[in-house]
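=== Structure Prediction Worksheet ===
Name of assembly: unnamed complex
Input type: mixed (protein and possibly other molecules)
Chain count: two
Listed entries:
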Amino acid sequence: MKILVINCGSSSIKYELFEMEDESVIAEGLIEKIGTESAIITYQATDKEELMKTAEILDHREGLNLVLRLLMDDKDGVIASKNEVAAVGHRVVHGGEFFSESAVITSEVRQAIRKTVDLAPLHNPPNLLGIAAAEQQLPDAIHVAVFDTAFHQTMPKHAYLYPLPYVLYTRHKIRRYGFHGTSHKYVSEQAALFIEKPLTELKIISAHIGNGASVTAIDHGISIDTSMGMTPLEGLMMGTRCGDIDPAIVPYVIAKEDLTLSEIQSMMNKHSGLLGVTGMSSDMREVTQAMEEGNEQAKLAIDMYLYKLRKTIGSYIAAMNGVDILLFTAGVGENSSYVRQEVCKELSFFGIELDQSKNNIRSKKTREISTPNSKVKVLVVPTYEELMIAREAKHLVDQQ
Amino acid sequence: MAEEIQQIAVIGGGTMGQGIAELCASKGYEVLLLEKTEELAQYAKGKIEQSLDKKLSKWGITTAEKKITLSRIVFTSNIELLRNADFVIESVVEDMSTKKAVFQICDELCREDVLFASNTSTLSLTEIAAVTNRPEKVVGLHFVYPVTKRPLVEVVRGLKTSEKTVADLRTLLTTLHLTGVEVFESPGFVTTRMIVLFINEATYILMEGVAEANEIDFAMKHGYHFAFGPFEMADRFGLNSVLAALERLYREFGDTKFRPAPLLKKMVRAGHLGIKTGEGFFKYDKDGNRL
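=== Predicted Assembly ===
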């Protein structure tokens, strides 16, 4: 069974075609700058050369049309007809309270996604565009929506509510939703497989740290708390996002700096975090390098970053009254041995012990980096959201 | 229609034209900013850069966003480039014969399906549209200053403006994150008519010695939640523009309530036009910050 996974941004489409018999990738690529005369298209069929070209692509429909033409191309194509694509897995950022799992897209599902546009104004509209375009191009395939928020719908009420007037929840659904759910779910499953224990017997803390970052407490396979909130701004210090701050700072800064609401939003989302503190870069690699070269502001930024991450992990150990696996994933989590080392160093009270040499090995595979004596297993698990979306789609197709 | 719009031509690079061009470019459109001369086009470029730098310093945009917004605008005096435009917004000086000349040129050069919008605040749209061969495709689009910070426009129908034109325009407004209030053709529409009266009355109050300019501004700003008091607002619009609008309303309605305050006239004659000359009711530095 072949499944196409697509992830639509406002002007981009990321796509990956899987053969689900062995979960192998048949082809993948990206279209950027949709809506312009010079959209950039990359296409890579497995075992073939990567293609790159520019063309006029004015909307997502044209974009997807092109993807399908590439997939069916006489020379570089990988399928003979559209009908080979049994299902399309769509990444949808926000599912609100409507979706606690992936769903086959029907008009009701579309309606519900539309209702959450207010909660994710930047992400859900392009996701909907992608769905409409794909349904038109592949009318016979089963279309499945996989939500970033769905995995966290298991959180108990005391974890997802904010101590604001309760009416704000009933009226506007203001609550914690959490993000990166597809990734947290995937890596927790991989971790259980890796240590050969059932997920339902484990307490896992999953640290998905990339440019955006969140930590999730997964108790017996279920998300019970996560650091991102109603929006992806809450929680950890990130590349350009501030994460948790005293909410009273917002009106204070607006008054002092004479800012508009959109300016302060942009400040907290795009000018804060590592970038805001260093004034130099949002990229952990660059900031780490600057720190090694003696840049004190870079050192401060990383210290703040690590401190917040460690505090959050500690709080989730408390939330679950223990932890069996601490895992790191995504760009920073998979690649920065320094971040992993420094976070774990001060968690020794909980019996976390890192094996320095294992931690320093670079690899693209799931691996254990704690010592045999460590009470808690520390793992690095590469995330693979596209594969998870394909698996979710396959699961729903099998059910039909 | 709006989905097919790629390039928006903004004619006139004054304060409003700059704001309209910056807004359209920041929302992803390719923009053609047309001025009478290359010097004026470059001047408008400098002002837009200044405006973007200000937003950057207030964390409103990133360096990349500044770069991409600027890269989407072509600053030129070459009217031939109008042939590629998908939509035209005219924002030249508020003078009927100038506007008519601009619309005639646009009508000659632009494709037949292209809609024209005029940012006029007090002139008759029907009269402007009449010089073109497409009066049904001409509509009023009156922006509020400062354009990039006020998400409101008045959508004005001329006598012949078609339903389809208004509907197409509405689609475009959504992509520009603007809300349109529909108004019928009438001098000053809603916003200009009310705001110039507000400024004029404040000037009379100042002349009568009831309160100082600073105090009047403070009272209205804090008592009624205005972003700027009447005098700072006038300084930002340009006192000559305020005066011109009042005189036109006075002429059109024949009602003495629009009679410009003598102090306003005197200040314009003295060349105290507001921010653009560094002095109006208050004084300003070259970046437009109040001293």
